[in-house]
Amino acid sequence: MENNDIHTWLSIGELAERSGVSVPTVRFYEEKQLIWSTRTQGNQRRYQRAMLRRIAIIKVAQQVGISLQQVNEAFSVLPKQQIASKKDWAKMSKKWQAQLDQQIITLLQLRNQLDKCIGCGCLSLKQCPLRNPDDQFAEQSSGAHFQSVLLSLLENDDAEL
Question: What is the pLDDT of residue 145?
C-alpha cells in the first residue's frame, strides 16, 4: 500500500462508521470472506473503498432475509481480492436475480395460502397449501397440533385389540 493511495483505503473504524456496521461485524464479514483487507507495516487493517458497496449489499440482503451464505454464493462470480467492475456487478446481479425471483414467488405463495391454515391446524399433506411433509397422520385425522392426542387414541385402540 503506497502513500498516494491514502484516500482509497479505509481503516476498520472508518469502514464500520461509513457503512453503518460495528467493527466486530466488519471483522466477521472478513472472516466469512465477504470482504477483505490488506495490512499496513504496523499490521493494521486497511480496506479499499469498494468494500462499502459490498457491505451495503450484505446489509440490504440481510434486511430481506437473505442469508450470508447466499450472499457469499452471489459474490462468488465477482473477482477474488479485486475491485469488481460494473460488468462484474451486472453478472452477479443477473445470476442472483433468478434466485431472488424464486424466493419472491415462494413468499407470495406463502402469503396467499397462509390465511387458509390459520386456526385450521390440519397441515395435511393432501389439504394444506403449506404442505407439511412431516404430517404422518394426514390419512387418519386432521389436526397436526393434536398429534399427541391422536397417538394416545391409537395406542388405546391397539391395547383394546
Answer: 44
**Confidence check: pLDDT of 57 > 70:** yes
How many Cβ atoms are within 10 Å of 100's Cβ, its own excluded?
15
Q: Measured between alpha carbons, how far is 159 from 161 in angstroms, rounded to an integer?
A: 5
Alpha-carbon gap, residue 108 to 102, rounded angstroms? 10
- Residue 140 phi/psi, 5-degree rounding, is -95, -30
Q: What is the Cα–Cα distance from 100 to 93, expressed in whole angstroms?
A: 10
User: Which pLDDT belongs to residue 152?
Assistant: 59
Closest CA to 146 of 157, 159, 136, 156: 136
Residue/partner pairs of 14-23 with CB below 8 Å, 24 or more apart: 15/47, 15/51, 15/52, 15/55, 18/52, 19/51, 19/52, 19/55, 19/56, 19/59, 20/59, 21/55, 21/59
- The CA–CA distances, whole Å, from 129 to 95, 109, 118 equal 29, 9, 11
Chain mean pLDDT for the chain: 78
